[in-house]
Amino acid sequence: MSLSVWLSLVLVCMLGAMSPGPSLVVMVRHSLAGGRLHGIVAAWAHALGVGFYALLTLLGLAVILKESPTVFTFITYAGAAYLAWLGIKSLRAKGGVAAKLEKGEKTTLLEAARDGAMISVLNPKLALFFLALFSQFVAIGTDTFSRSVIVVTPFLIDGLWYTLVALVLSSSRMLEKLKQNAVLIDKLCGLVLLGLAARVIVTL
What is the pTM of this model? Predict the structure, then answer.
């Protein structure tokens, strides 16, 4: 794989990671509620899910996923249900993120890892994203080293991007500003997650 081809892969992966969506919402919630470490744990758990789909594409399994309506529909509905559950949990929590910020209560690292991983694993659009834009790089890289780079690149970019998000949100200056609007952020996160869940169902 040449440097120019790899840079193209990096660009595609960066655009995918930086696009706003349910993953960003989950990272924001855990970075605010649990702090920097929780946000970073959620970030790398999410990156593992991204690496998982990259590996599926590399092995050709993403094609099977796309061509199996039953499997695709099941994963899509499961993902929508999980988004809805996160949204309802955020809306119904007594203070939610706001309460955690004020009382110093933290979500567990296990919860951060679970949500980070699930929000990527239960997102069939990741498979389609890699199938549409990522498969061209799989065809170019046929040796073991190139294939390893193809899988590791999106994993690292996704993890590093959401780690940056966690670092920015958990800085003392940024945290103080967000603390003043914590209740609003909590409710907005819940509404956004419910909206994203509904969008998945409608566009299925």
Answer: 0.74
